[in-house]
């Protein structure tokens, strides 16, 4: 999560294709083994290569993926990449471009762009050839494997969008949107969102309800304010899994008139996957999104002829489509804006399940 990779001085127009006069800001840098906090160190400005762009970042979302980058686990590599600048939900302005960026891809200095989850894909594996580069076996993840981005992962941001509220769409939003779209849902049916009050969850409620016309039951817990929050996002029903206890499956079946047609499992815990198989109806579809050392019990899959899918973030096309729903005003991300030096506390809050909506860092000051 860089504060900015070069911020123009008052003498340099922000849209000049050059880096003379730019001063590097502080960077939130991981320079110690997993489990240690970010350090805030002076950044360095590098001339972009032929297929690269230099972006002055204004905002960066804080994602649970960043917890893995700091503490390990989930998709993080077994051996941490250090030193490493974290973050993968960045929005900012192009300051300088390599030759291929303008010539072949149409990017220009001064454009507002987003820097998302993956920085590079191979383009040749089965997933890439199928147009599913989000499942590339050789992908490199921004803020986990490397601190930058290659040209094809820059995303143009519609002019009407606010930078701070746009950051989360680049990861949380596209993850929710693409996962639901992959289910090919029928309007009017029941979709259960497990882990509904967080960054991905509150956007999943909105996409399911407003874009796909589904009825939504939200599951979360641990805070009495989460019910009002989820219903404000559009949830028709809410179940607190803490209060429900062993009756969770029965309550969900009752509220959905027989069981869920679709389930998004966003919580990376085994109990969420156990319950998902039980409160579904016959031939329901379950989408595994929450990253954890979890499994789906086989018995309900066989008994109900369930379809189990998995999904990781989304393609560039998914991001562009998700952004258009935000640009139209249909989807609104609930954000809390923090300063860069609040980063470690923000990650601890995420890890403890103490966040409703999304946390965003303002990198401009």
Automatic annotation (TrEMBL):
User: Which EC class heads this enzyme's classification?
Assistant: oxidoreductase
Put simply, this protein is called alcohol dehydrogenase
EC number per UniProt: 1.1.1.1
Natural source organism: Extremus antarcticus
Q: Which SUPFAM superfamilies match?
A: GroES-like (SSF50129), NAD(P)-binding Rossmann-fold domains (SSF51735)
Reply yes or no: does the keyword Zinc apply: yes
Task: Report the family membership.
Answer: Belongs to the zinc-containing alcohol dehydrogenase family.
Tell me the leader sequence span. none
